Amino acid sequence: MAQLLPAIILLPLQVAGSRIAVRHLSSTGWTRSELVEKLTESYVPDMTMEQYTADKDGLLWTGSSWYPGAVFREGFTKRPQPQNDPGEDAHAWGEHIADSIAGNTWAYGFHATTDPRVAAQFGVQHVWRIPRPDEEAQEECGLFAKDVDNGCIQKIMNSFQRKYGCPGNNSALWKKDQGCYNAPCLRVDKMGDEDEGLEDLCPNWGYAYLVKVEGVHVRISDRKALGKNYNAEEEVFVPMEIKPEEILGAIPIYARKSDGSKRSTGLLGFSDTWDGKSGHKAITVPGVHTRSGQTVKNGIGKFIFNPGYSGGVAREEVAQELRRKGIQDDLGLAVPREEV
User: Lower Cβ count inside 10 Å, N or C end of the chain?
Assistant: First the structure.
């Protein structure tokens, strides 16, 4: 799904997040809607591409670990790779999309879904796949060494704040700990080590973003997929980019266990992971990770609206979409601590 990139199993549904905020420079002169129309008229062996319509399937969702503060501002965009840009060749675009699903290769666009449960699971899985910042700091900055490079550590922390909204500007983590092992250091280890407590862990939430864009329903044969069936993901491919004003908002999904370790949801059993005995709804969110500071017994949070959405009346469209997908009563009251 989206992020999914900040990156993710890199499974087909990973969409949002792959290099947010980089505008595309492609050799194609087609608009996204023109490309979608051409794709539905194209033939690619072992693959079907059909027109996605909101009237028939509702709106689209994509999962990401990037927080709304970044996504609402920058949208989901990618820079096409010179060696992997289909240009104005609809057949090449089709093969490009098929390879990204079956072979997990890079694609100039985003894998979305009509099912919010799928997007939610991908969002949580994206969080699970993010490397720990303290491990990066140990390798790149000499964390805990006598010659620790705190400027290097700060760059890592700045990157996390830009993508995931944490640590916040007022966090004590921005101040050097004078008693830090071999030399004063920025305690980036508290962002990744649950044994240091829950308060400073980062990131803690995945997101299912709701978007209103054109796309194509994509299905590939079992032969192309080497025996795997991707149909449960309800795949819709969105070429090129998703602009900030096309994003209605997001459902936050808590991505940690009670002990603070990350949850690995896998990429199967989407309905059970949503509201099963050990699913998102069964998760308790600690107060240190909510805006209110209160513990909430539902890991599916409150819908966060994008104030920059310009595609319609967001509150009416969101309410209709939640009812249509049967999740209107599943959302809880938790709002992530991270500022939007």
Answer: C
The sheet with strand 60-64 has its strands ordered as: 47-51, 216-220, 235-239, 109-113, 60-64, 205-211, 247-254, 304-305
Question: How many domains does the chain divide into?
Answer: 2
* pLDDT tens digits, 44-101: 888 889 989 999 999 999 999 999 999 999 999 888 777 778 889 999 999 998 888 8
Kindly give, in sequence order, each residue whose CB lies less than 8 Å from that of residue 57, ignoring residues fewer than 6 positions away: 114, 217, 236
Count of residues for the chain? 340
Domain of residue 238, residue span: 4-129+204-324
Q: Do 239 and 212 share a domain, yes or no? A: yes
Among 101, 92, 114, 71, CA closest to 26: 92
Q: Hey, what amino acid is at 312?
A: G
176 and 247 in a single domain? The answer is: no
- Same domain, residue pair 265 and 248: yes
Do 248 and 146 belong to one domain?
no
How does residue 8 score in pLDDT terms, banded at 50, 70 and 90?
A: very low
